[in-house]
């Protein structure tokens, strides 16, 4: 299906915005109105390989869970995230963030595309273009409000199950020695 694209201008330097966006734990702060219940998929939250699972807030969506993983990060201007959702995770997603210097600030472009695996998945995606355009448009306006005024901040994502590093159980290279 054709990608949905939205953009906005934010009065902050590109490097500062890139450092914020490359950390996937920050994304629930401005996306939690249409993507909820964020959980990180690994301890490292920034850079290539960082990922999260979430629930898409859509009416009548039986298979509303999805995930995104940063697959390509090119500092300071592009982040490509790939993921899956839908029944048996058959629907592939691609989200591309591009940051361009624009006057005294940065123009942020977001492109969202999904690739249904079969006709049943394509039918289930009806109405998703409007939902995605509205959701990403509001996410960008919230991102602008966070960086320009410091308000409308949500919560950061966390790793499911609590702390990991202090509780590994490894002693001298063996478990439970």
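Sequence proposed for the structure above (177 residues):
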């Amino acid at each position: 299906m054709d990608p949905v694209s939205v953009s906005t201008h934010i009065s902050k330097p590109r490097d500062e915005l890139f450092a914020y966006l490359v950390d996937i734990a920050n994304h629930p702060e401005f996306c939690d109105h249409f993507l909820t219940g964020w959980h990180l998929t690994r301890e490292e939250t920034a850079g290539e390989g960082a990922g999260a699972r979430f629930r898409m807030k859509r009416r009548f969506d039986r298979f509303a869970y999805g995930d995104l993983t940063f697959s390509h990060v090119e500092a300071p201007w592009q982040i490509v995230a790939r993921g899956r959702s839908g029944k048996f995770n058959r629907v592939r997603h691609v989200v591309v963030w591009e940051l361009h210097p624009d006057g005294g600030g940065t123009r942020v472009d977001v492109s969202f595309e999904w690739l249904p695996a079969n006709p049943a998945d394509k039918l289930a995606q009806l109405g998703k273009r409007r939902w995605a355009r509205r959701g990403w448009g509001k996410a960008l306006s919230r991102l602008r409000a966070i960086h320009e005024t410091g308000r409308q901040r949500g919560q950061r994502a966390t790793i499911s199950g609590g702390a990991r590093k202090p509780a590994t159980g490894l002693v001298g290279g063996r478990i439970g020695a």
